[in-house]
Write a structure and sequence with these properties.
Elements lengths: L6 E3 L9 H8 L5 E4 L3 H10 L6 H6 L5 H11 L23 H19 L6 E6 L6 H10 L4 E5 L6 H9 L4 E4 L12 E4 L1 H4 L11 E6 L2 H10 L6 E5 L32 H5 L5 E4 L5 H9 L4 E4 L1 H4 L8 H12 L5 E4 L9 E4 L8 H6 L11 E4 L5 E4 L5 H6 L13 H8 L38 H9 L7
Parallel strand pairs: 1-10, 2-3, 3-4, 4-7, 7-8, 8-9, 9-10
Antiparallel strand pairs: 5-6, 11-12, 13-14
Helix pairs in contact: 1-5, 2-5, 5-6, 6-7
């Protein structure tokens, strides 16, 4: 295997890039990546669903903190699984100053996903985080490092503090991260802190420091991170606006087309010649999903490509089987559409959404959902009048948002992505009144291309089919 992988499997959504998918890619000598978003909720919901194959409990038993593992199993594991119409038991939402229990559960959940992805082979595994989801970041990183994660990938922001934090966490040192705070003054310095010794008081020795890859869309940001990060940046994933999930907003004034899609231009394209001057490996992402595009990337000086959409709908991904079959069939028949919704995400990042019946992409379905924020991963921190830190989400009930000094304009068109993405992977909440949280499926612009992997009327394919196709013309490199 090369010193760096040619192919990076994208870290998509909540539970879409799960451990099964990452393992399937990793055993083929490429970089399999798990999503690190909302891992604590995913873990406790899998336990409440009965952990029927025993994977969660097996991984928890390998956590070098047995008291945490035992507590999670005792508290959330339901033999045989909860009833289908029974609501999931919720974790407390994250707070600016986390409780020890919250820290414990975040560490454990990130450990479990990475441990399972790495179990039984010698391939490399990465974990993907979003810079804009800050509160769980520090304990999440530590949990992944306890499981010997090989790469950390992070986008949706400017993660210049993360490389140095990885250095310190490898030594079990206390770390801090500046909190991005709305309504803060220039000299304010609110920080999130995490001391591994609180969770792991008997920690000794040194953990492996994973490589850090920043996911960016601009050569300017690449230069900033390479020169001003607190520690060493090991490379970049340069992701253009056709990639799935959250995209960087267009530079300059936001203009929309007739369908409400943000308009991108030449200013939104990274200058690869400037990136190459940094002498760091980089991968290209966003519509780089053919052998020809891979060879083009290599010719441009890239180490390879990151690919998301084809992996998102393969058998090993976390999407519900019915969701995958429906979208694959639409792709085969050429009648699937992806729109870049400038409003859907509470984060202010444009969000790519598959237009799909009976999902929140349908305005009638969206309007039928009573606003509720009970997971809170995308809440934004703000400074209250008394100087304390509050958390608010423009997707929460409008009255609540306004009571937190939010602007009503921010609430228009916002969707509860947290609950919707959990529904995508079969972990959607059932409300006491019987309402079931609905899907909101995200994908890259190249969704139609997944038809190339489908043979006959099976409407399914494997991660290995994607790897074989993409690497067919560069086998001498891997």
């Amino acid at each position: 295997m090369m010193s760096e992988p040619v192919l990076i499997q994208g870290g998509m959504g909540i539970g879409v890039s799960n451990w099964q998918l990452a393992k399937a890619v990793s055993v083929r000598g490429q970089l399999g990546v798990v999503s690190g978003t909302a891992m604590d909720t995913i873990l406790v919901r899998r336990l409440q669903d009965g952990d029927l194959q025993g994977h969660m409990r097996r991984a928890l038993k390998q956590l070098p903190l047995p008291h945490i593992a035992d507590e999670l199993i005792d508290k959330y594991y339901i033999p045989g699984g909860k009833k289908a119409d029974e609501p999931y038991r919720l974790l407390p939402m994250h707070k600016y100053e986390a409780s020890l229990q919250q820290l414990n559960y975040i560490v454990a959940a990130n450990f479990v996903e990475v441990y399972l992805a790495k179990e039984g082979h010698n391939g490399v595994v990465g974990i993907n985080y979003l810079e804009k989801i800050q509160i769980p970041t520090l304990p999440s990183l530590y949990g992944a490092m306890l499981a010997n994660v090989d790469y950390v990938l992070m986008g949706a922001g400017i993660p210049k503090s993360i490389p140095g934090i990885l250095d310190d966490l490898a030594m079990h040192k206390a770390v801090s991260l500046k909190l991005n705070l709305d309504d803060a003054m220039p000299d304010d310095n609110y920080r999130l802190t995490f001391d591994p010794k609180l969770v792991n008081p008997e920690a000794i020795g040194q953990l492996k420091r994973p490589k850090f890859l920043a996911i960016i869309s601009s050569h300017v940001l690449a230069t900033t991170l390479a020169k001003k990060s607190t520690g060493h940046v090991d490379g970049f994933v340069i992701e253009n606006h056709t990639a799935g999930g959250h995209n960087a907003p267009p530079r300059g004034t936001l203009n929309l087309d007739a369908k409400g899609n943000p308009l991108y231009g030449e200013k939104d394209e990274a200058n690869l010649e400037e990136v190459k001057k940094l002498n760091l490996p980089f991968w290209l992402a966003g519509s780089f999903n053919t052998p020809q595009k891979l060879n083009e990337a290599l010719a441009l000086g890239a180490s390879g490509i990151q690919v998301g959409t084809p992996f998102a709908f393969c058998e090993e991904s976390g999407f519900e089987d019915e969701v995958k079959r429906t979208i694959i069939e639409k792709a085969v028949n050429g009648n699937v559409e992806v729109c870049t919704d400038a409003l859907a995400s509470p984060t202010n990042f444009p969000f790519k959404v598959v237009q799909m019946e009976d999902s929140l992409s349908d305005d009638a379905v969206y309007q039928n959902r009573q606003r509720l924020c009970d997971l809170g991963y995308l809440r934004k921190a703000y400074k209250k009048a008394d100087g304390s830190v509050g958390l608010r989400c423009p997707g929460e009930p409008v009255d609540n948002y306004l009571k937190k000094d939010g602007d009503i304009a921010d609430t228009v068109g916002r969707k509860c992505i947290c609950n919707a993405l959990l529904a995508d992977v079969g972990l959607g909440q059932v409300r006491p009144d019987g309402y079931e949280e609905q899907h909101l499926v995200t994908s890259g612009d190249e969704l139609l291309s997944i038809a190339r992997y489908v043979k006959g009327k099976k409407y399914s394919y494997k991660a290995s089919d994607v790897v074989d196709y993409l690497l067919a013309s560069v086998k001498e490199l891997v």
